[in-house]
């Protein structure tokens, strides 16, 4: 600020000397122009000295504040980037763990399915054996009935072939005797 004031004072003195030199001819209009210029330059210099330093100070504070905020934002971004890098490094470990867990689950599921399949095969075999046994029993019964029927029919045929009227009479008489 002092420098600006010194500069304005130096400018006014230089302008005053130039005014004095240029006024030797007695031209009063030029003298008033120079006087007006000096008043205007002095007023502008005074206003600049009074208003510009606080404006520059305020602007410097705003820039400093913005720089501090941007540095804080940068530090936050660096921290986030470090966290992301840490997570990315941990992802490989997590992926490996998930793969191992998935492999264990797959192995356990395969064992469970194999056991379930073996149980189902055993159940189906037992059921098939029961059905075969039942079918064998049923077939034996049917065969026994059929054989008995054939035996009865064969015996009937033999009896009919041997049955003659005198044999029939003798059987009827013996039956009647047993009834009495």
Q: Count helical runs.
A: 3
- Could you say which structural class the secondary elements and strand pairing correspond to? mainly alpha
What would you report as the Rg, rounded to the nearest angstrom? 66 Å
Beta-strand content estimate: under 5%
* Main beta sheet strand tally, sense and closure: none
Q: Give the N-to-C terminal Cα separation.
A: 165 Å
| Number of domains as seen in the coordinates | 1
- Percent helix, as a range, is over 70%
Instruction: Please tell me the overall pLDDT.
Output: 85
Which series of helices and strands comes N to C? HHH
Instruction: Tell me the overall shape.
Output: rod-shaped
Instruction: Kindly state the number of beta strands.
Output: 0
Q: Note poorly predicted spans.
A: none
Write a structural description.
The protein is rod-shaped and about 195 Å long. It is built from three helices and no strands. It is mainly alpha-helical and 180 residues long. The chain has one domain.
What order do the helices and strands come in, and which of them pair?
Blueprint lengths: L1 H21 L5 H135 L2 H15 L1
Name its key features.
180 residues, mainly alpha, 95% helix
Q: In a nutshell, what does this entry contain?
A:
This protein is mainly alpha-helical. It contains 3 helices and no strands.
């Amino acid at each position: 600020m002092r420098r600006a004031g010194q500069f304005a004072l130096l400018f006014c003195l230089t302008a005053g000397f130039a005014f004095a030199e240029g006024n030797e001819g007695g031209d009063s209009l030029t003298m008033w122009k120079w006087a007006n210029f000096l008043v205007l330059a002095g007023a502008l210099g005074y206003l600049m000295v009074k208003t510009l330093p606080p404006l520059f100070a305020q602007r410097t504070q705003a820039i400093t504040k913005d720089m501090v905020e941007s540095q804080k934002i940068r530090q936050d971004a660096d921290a986030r980037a470090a966290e992301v890098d840490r997570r990315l490094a941990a992802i490989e470990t997590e992926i490996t763990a998930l793969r191992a867990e998935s492999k264990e689950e797959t192995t356990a599921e395969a064992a469970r399915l194999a056991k379930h399949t073996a149980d189902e095969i055993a159940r189906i075999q037992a059921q098939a054996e029961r059905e075969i046994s039942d079918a064998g029993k049923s077939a034996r019964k049917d065969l026994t009935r059929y054989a008995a029927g054939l035996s009865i029919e064969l015996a009937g045929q033999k009896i009919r072939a041997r049955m003659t009227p005198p044999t029939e009479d003798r059987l009827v008489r013996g039956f009647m005797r047993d009834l009495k």
